[in-house]
Amino acid sequence: MSKTTIDSKTQQFRSLSRAYSDASILMHEAIARKAGLSGTDHKYLGLILQKKELTAGDLAQLTGLTTGAVTGLIDRLEQKELVKRQFTKDDRRKVLIVPQEQKAMELLEPLFADLQAKTLALIASFSETELQVIEKYFTEATQIMQDTAQSLNQ
Fold first, then answer.
1. Which of 88, 89, 118, 132 has its CA 20 to 30 A from that of 141?
2. What confidence tens digit (pLDDT) does each residue in 45-71 have?
3. Rounded distance, CA 85 to CA 97, Å?
């Protein structure tokens, strides 16, 4: 393959990747607005739901947000009853942020139903080999982005 062809394919891939990233951000912003959240609050709620429970310090380290910004985030999500602060039994000074999963699912599931159905149909259209390539790309691209974010946050 010539250098010109490689450069053209790389540029096309970057363009598609950028379009995917932009569409993802815009979609999540729209979902967040419908849910009465900001886009970042919606995405950070997703992280909290995945982790099941974490401290404010853990959340600050994970996101790169300042502790003050994390406190504001938790306050906003707690006001909407999507998370709660819970003292640990061992050390009452330590506070865990615990998602209110049922409330969050009641709010978000209806907004994701159509997206999930269409995504499942798309996944079903790929062969096993194609899915393995897609999985490899997402796994490795995710690691690159996590490494980049961690480096920039230090």
1. 118
2. 999 999 998 988 888 888 888 888 989
3. 5
Which distant-in-sequence residues (6+ apart) come within 8 Å of 97 by Cβ? 48, 53, 54, 55, 56, 59, 74, 83, 84, 85, 86
Give, for 96, the enclosing helix (H) or strand (E): strand 95-99
Assigned token pair, 84:
């709660």
- Residue labelled with tokens 């909407």: 80
**pLDDT tens-digit map of 102-137:** 999 999 999 999 999 999 999 999 999 999 999 999
Phi/psi of residue 97, nearest 5 degrees: -100, 120
Instruction: Give residues with Cβ within 8 angstroms of 7, minimum separation 6.
Output: none
- What is the Cα–Cα distance from 149 to 153, expressed in whole angstroms? 6
Total H helices, total E strands in the chain: 6, 3
